[in-house]
User: Which sequence fits this backbone?
């Protein structure tokens, strides 16, 4: 089996399901959250969403982010086999972790077909959390894992 390499230069357009242009009644929000495939999202007539132009984050940066935001606690050994058990993993600060994924992964935003740079203060906190989570998932799983 060949390894599927992640394209570090791939740009993927994501939207927030909180965008007022999203037709929540006619969209499959759960399917979008699971696949990040825009075919599951319908938009209200005459409205255009803000797209977040994102990139995959390289494994070194992912490790640096995870090292700061996860706490690994040893839980001891299996009583039957005596072998070490996997550590307990706790997220220490999920909010700041998603902000870091957002700032590392979002290159630009696109409004009305025009891409532009942005200042993070322009983006509402809940949307930063949502898009940061999508960037984390895509970077960890790769593009082909999120297409159906």
Assistant:
């Amino acid at each position: 089996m060949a390894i599927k390499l992640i394209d570090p230069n791939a740009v993927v357009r994501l939207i927030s399901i909180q965008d007022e242009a999203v037709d929540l009644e006619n969209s499959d929000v759960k399917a979008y959250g699971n696949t990040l495939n825009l075919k599951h999202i319908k938009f209200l007539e005459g409205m255009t969403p803000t797209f977040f132009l994102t990139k995959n984050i390289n494994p070194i940066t992912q490790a640096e982010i995870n090292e700061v935001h996860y706490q690994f606690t040893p839980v001891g050994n299996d009583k039957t086999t005596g072998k070490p058990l996997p550590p307990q993993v706790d997220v220490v600060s999920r909010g700041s972790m998603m902000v870091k994924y957002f700032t590392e992964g979002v290159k630009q935003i696109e409004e009305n077909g025009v891409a532009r740079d942005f200042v993070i203060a322009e983006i509402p906190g809940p949307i930063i959390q949502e898009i940061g989570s999508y960037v984390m998932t895509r970077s960890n799983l790769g593009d082909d894992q999120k297409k159906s």
